[in-house]
Each structure stands twice: as structure tokens, then as C-alpha cells.
Amino acid sequence: MNWRSIFAIVRRDLTLVARAKAVMVPLVIVPVVLFVGLPLLVSFALDAAGSDLDDLLPLIDALPESVRISLGDGPLLQRAQLYLLEHQFATFFLIVPLMVCAVIAADSFAGEKERKTLEALLYTPTTDRELYLAKLLGPWLASIAVTFASYGVYLVVCNLALAGSVGRVVAVTPLWATVVLWLSPGVAALGLSVLVVVSARVRGFQEAYQVGGVLVLPVVALVAAQFAGFLFVDSALAVFLGLLTWAIALGVMAVGFGIFRRERLLEQV
Questions:
Q1: 13-23 burial by CB neighbour count: b if 16+ within 10 A, else e?
Q2: 3-class DSSP state of 186
Q3: Are 60 and 68 a contacting pair, CB within 8 Å?
Q4: How far is Cα 185 from Cα 97, in angstroms, rounded to an integer?
Q5: Is residue 78 helix, strand or coil?
Q6: Cα separation of the two ends of the chain
Q7: 3-class state of residue 2 by DSSP
């Protein structure tokens, strides 16, 4: 395995991504909306709810005892804010790695076909496996970078929104550590393993990107199930989901390695 060639392709792909407005705009706007605008909106909306906030009391009381203890015994407003920012947004956060993978992996082969740059890449002295691995590694590294950056921004926003009212750092919990360091990378690996295969088989960026939108639906369903009270994601469940996600991702990657042939791409150029 020629790692120098692999990382050369990774650097090339990430450079192209940085220059493509159609790719960079979603990578900036979506995390800002989700993890700056939305937490502030939620916090201010709860603050303005007044007596209507009592409707959330049955939801808070139905939470596991360990979670209720972590929320403290402060006012209902404070407990509701902590629950949403520390628990609900942890699962919602999984949209970030999927979104990044959907954009970059969709551009991986399909975007290069549109830009007429794919043929030169396919004639480089790399094996099919090296080329495929490079196309996986670039989006995955970008996804991890955006995930960590989004989490850092989210920490700042949450702690500013609840400054002085909680008495501790917000959103630094075992659940968040598991989501950011374990589950999110697995979700990113699964998303890009599917999308790189799709991108290699379709002719345009938009076709591949639409498939990426479908991959977000399970995360949306998970968020909805937790918000409705049907499911509660704690750190133990996040570890299990990470194991399941990584297992499926590695299986899909293995299949992708087996079926990837640059000759088929050359026929589509």
C-alpha cells in the first residue's frame, strides 16, 4: 500500500473541496444554523415560555434517575434547558458528520466527472484499492474536522447561553464524549462508504447528493423517537450504536473494495 500516493490524492481532493462553493457553503452554513442559531433559539424560547413551560414537567419527571440527578434541582427552566442542550442535541449532532460526508463524498467521483478532472486521476500510478481508500479517507478526515469544530462552537454557545445559571460546564458529559469521539466517526464512515460507491456509479453531483439526504433520515428518526419519549440515548446506548455503525461501515467498505474497478469509471468519463 503506497501511503504517499494515498495522502497525495487526499490533499488534492480536500484542496478541490475548499475551492468549490457548492461544497463549502453547506459545510459552513449548516453547522452554524444547527449549533449556533438553534441552541440560542431553543434557550430563548424556553425563557419566554413562562407558565407554558410546565407542560415539560412530565417529560422531565419521566427521565431516568441518573439524568434527573445530572440536571440538578434548580428551576424547571434551567432543567429543561440542560436536558435539551445536553441530551437532545447530542443525537441531533449526528447530522453533522452525515452532512459533511454527503457533500464531500458525493463530490468524490460524481463531481470530478462534471469537472472533467476524473480521467487524469484514474490514470495515476495507483492501485484500485489505493484510489478507493484515498476517496474514503479524504471525506472522513474532513468530517471529523468539521465535527470537532462544530462541537467546540457548540460548547461556547451553550455555556454563554447558560452563563452563571448552572454552576458547571455545559455539554461536557460522557454522552457527548461518546457521541463526538466514537459514534460520530462511525456514522461518518458508514455514510461515506455508501456514498463513495454511489458517487462512482452516478453521473452527477446532484444525483449522489440526493442519496446523501436519504442517509440523514435514520438520525432524524432517532431524534424524533427520543424527543417523543420512546427512546433515550445515554452513553451506553451510544457505545452500542457506535459498535453497530462501525461494523456495518466496515462491511460496506469491504464490499466497496471488492467491486471497485477504475475501468468502469473510465467508461463513464
A1: bbebbeebeeb
A2: helix
A3: yes
A4: 7
A5: helix
A6: 26
A7: coil
DSSP class of residue 73 equals S
Three-class SS of residue 174? Answer: helix
- Report the distance separating Cα 102 and Cα 15, nearest Å: 17
Which residue did the predictor score with more confidence, 199 or 57? 57
The position carrying cell 454557545 is: 157
Q: Is the pLDDT of residue 229 over 80?
A: no
From CA 144, how far away is CA 191, in angstroms rounded? 13
Integer Cα distance of 131 and 118 in angstroms? 12
Q: Find, among 178, 5, 197, 205, the residue nearest to 87 by Cα.
A: 178
Q: Is 61 exposed, middle or buried (0-12, 13-18, 19+ CB in 10 A)?
A: exposed
pLDDT of residue 202: 57
Burial bucket for residue 56 (CB in 10 Å: 0-12, 13-18, 19+): middle
pTM for the full model? 0.88
CB within 8 Å of 227: residues ≥ 6 apart: 88
Closest CA to 102 of 10, 190, 12: 190
Give yes or no for a contact between 39 and 157, defined as CB atoms under 8 angstroms apart.
Answer: yes
Alpha carbon distance 26, 205 (integer Å): 14
The better pLDDT of the pair 116, 101 is held by: 101
Rounded Cα gap, residues 138 and 199, in angstroms: 14
123 grid coordinates: 490514470
